[in-house]
Amino acid sequence: MRIGIFSGSTNDGTLDQLVAEAKSAAEAGFASFWVSQIFGHDALTALAVIGREVPLIELGTAVVPTYPRHPVMLAQQALTVNAAAGGRLALGIGLSHQVVIESILGMSYDKPVRHLREYLSVLMPLLEGTPVSFDGDDFRVHAGISVPGGSRPGVFVAALGEQTLRVAATLADGTITWCTGPETLRSHTIPTLRAAAEAAGRPDQRVISALPVCVTDDRASALGRAAGIFKMYGQLPSYRAMLDKEGAAGPADIAIVGAEAEVGDRIRALGEIGVTDFSAVEFGGNPDEVAGTRALLKTLL
User: What Å distances lie between residue 36 and 63, 94, 210, 277, CA to CA?
Assistant: First the structure.
């Protein structure tokens, strides 16, 4: 199982801080560095800069919402970023959430599974360098693009429910999850994805799991902090459904918290159930926890 790091500066840090974080992760030997797309820096633009300054490490988006970006435009952008990064981009995409798309962006969230299927039907050929002639309900696209130096990145869908997992397995390269605990990954996410991938003749799917991590000797304090930091995710319906499958009251219940040995064992156990990549969302509350968490993660490389 490959071990990666989530950026902590995407929304409230500077671009220089993002570069420094990626450089630190690369120098420590981590396999990947992931940048979220929320309401701060644009993830792909940031990764184009990072890709020119930081060598070796895989650079991923987790995740770019599909609705605000036409698939032709996203294909152009992703190929350009991958050219800047020397072929190291992992393109994570997702539907976002109804409240974001409708209430904040003022767009329709009607039939999201159909939207995702059609979106990938346009995006994937363009990333391969193949012109698209596609007439669907949401997209009617007849276009080709050419990005010299660009190569197809891996495409990973933030797929949580059964239908989106099947679409991801059939058309993309795997899934990237958040707020999805180990039992849900074992009994729902991984078998659903694998079965659909086998049926589609696409067995080499990556399962990228992201969870909060903190090495600490004060479990109660760390869990209380996690409950506050990650509270909003427990209120979004798609994540709430995954927490309910896990029997978790909130995101704090799936945070990986405790002493070094316990945290290490819990992360390693994810690999045993079929997670191919683990991306740590570090949330140490003091310098000792920050240093201890990073030190433990480095032992897993």
Answer: 6, 11, 11, 16
What are the CA-CA distances from residue 173 to residues 90, 145, 249 (Å)? 10, 21, 31
Q: Beta partners for 59? A: 33, 89
pLDDT of residue 297: 98
Pairwise CA distance, residues 208 & 169, whole Å:
13
Judging by DSSP bridges, how do beta strands 132-135 and 140-143 pair with one another?
Answer: antiparallel
What's the angle, vertex CA 34, arms to CA 287 and CA 56, rounded to 5?
100
Residue 57 backbone dihedrals phi, psi, to 5 degrees: -75, 145
Query: Which residue type does 123 have?
Result: L
Where are the chain's structural domains? Answer: 166-301
Helix (H, G, I), strand (E, B) or coil at 138: coil
Is the separation of the CB atoms in 8 and 25 below 8 Å? no
The pLDDT tens digits of the residues spanning 160-183 come to 999 999 999 999 999 999 999 999
Q: Does domain 166-301 have CATH number 3.40.50.300?
A: no
